[in-house]
Amino acid sequence: MKYSLIEVKDAKQGEIFCRIPQYLFGKDPHFVAVPIQIQQDLFDAAKNKRLQHLRLKRWLLQKEGRWVGRIAAFDHPKPALDEKAGAIGFFDCIADDVAAQMLLDQAENQLVQWGVDCIDGPVQPGENDQFWGLLVEGFGRPSFGANWNPPYYRRFFEEAGYVSYYEQITNVITIQSGLPERFFKIAEWVKQKGKVELSHFSYRDKAYYAQSVAHIYNHAWHQFENFTPKQSKDVLEELNRLKQVLKEDLIWFAHIEKEAAAFMLMVPDLNQYFAKINGNLNALGRLKFWWNRKMHAPRRLKILVMGVVQKYQKLGLESVLIDVAYRWVRQHYRHVDEVELAWVGDFNGPMLALHQAAGAKPLRRHITFRKSLNDEVVVKKFEIKTD
Question: Fewer Cβ in 10 A, N or C end of the chain?
């Protein structure tokens, strides 16, 4: 039973690379394919600007004429940590130790040639933290942007020498259960004390809100390992690109003395609609997507991101944003059953405590692994570096 590794060199192989998960898990009732067009955008330097500064290679694994695996290796620069880091991602494989080892060895050998000291994975080379980490708990229902994989992947990584770098905890709030009464009181106290003004996004004022997002992002995430500053023009471009899936009244901002202090981006879980299009947003797929969105109101919402300017991070603005979002959803989106909160790293104690205070329940857990390629580099759990 001979395996063949094939480096992705052309568009046809690139499309096969994007379809591998469907080939392997298309019949699994818990699997929802990420549309190939969305995957392809991650490998298009014109759309994913990080690729303009990264080396990246992809491989396919074939066995007796059947596609059985894939993997990618790429640079993973972390200027804030001064590390020579690389990464692997898009790992998918049949339940076979030999196949998994071939894929991991190929990616690791490439990273060794590039001179990296450590490998993180599975991650992706984009500018956000979607499709990040290996799923280890909560295999039942994936949401869009959350990696899904079968349970046996974890053993492949751990037996190959990867250890947990950080865990990503995803919690959920059910609308019927509600928020604890104490949470409402805390949010109201914070709002009054900080003289917080709240508003939701409007495309009519999109330039102003794009500037607000850039300001909050650059003053909230600058201490994180893969931080890259955002320009308002880039945010505006992204808002225009996502106009068909964003809802203005699900994006909330908090201002203090006219300064943009915090924001929260919430969207319908797109997997409710992607489950109907067989992983393809071609003309027919877009029509099906549009029709299903028109005919079926979303039952699940997902907070993609919530950020607070660093000088306001101890004020409790996260509570205010969750409070206003919950009240708004309950009043205006009566069909919604639950809201999935953005994943929180195990290194972020304050945010985990906030989720607990809001009465959120565990939904799933991912692990971002790390492996050292240099005897002088010791893998330590990730921590937030504060000023």
Answer: C
Contacts of 71 (CB under 8 A, 6+ apart): 58, 59, 61, 88, 89, 90, 91, 92, 103, 104, 106, 107
Instruction: Please check whether residues 161 and 222 belong to one and the same domain.
Output: no
pLDDT per position as a tens digit, 90-128: 999 999 999 999 999 999 999 999 999 999 999 999 877
* pLDDT one-digit tens code per residue, 265-290: 999 999 999 999 999 999 999 999 98
317/308 Cα distance (integer angstroms): 7
Strands 251-256 and 300-308: unpaired
Residue in the block written with tokens 């699997």: 31
If you write DSSP's letter for every residue of 251-286 in order, what string do you get?
A: EEEEEETTEEEEEEEEEE-THHHHTTTTT--SHHHH
Total domains, the chain = 2
pTM (two decimals): 0.91
249 with 314, same domain: the answer is: yes
Specify if 386 maps to a domain: no
CATH code of residue 237: 3.40.630.30
Work out the pLDDT band at 337, boundaries 50, 70, 90: very high
Residue 275's domain comprises 177-336
Per the structure block, which two tokens stand in for 47?
Answer: 């759309």
Residue type, 51: L
Tell me whether residue 326 is in a domain: yes
Measure the CA–CA gap between 256 and 263, rounded to whole angstroms.
Answer: 12
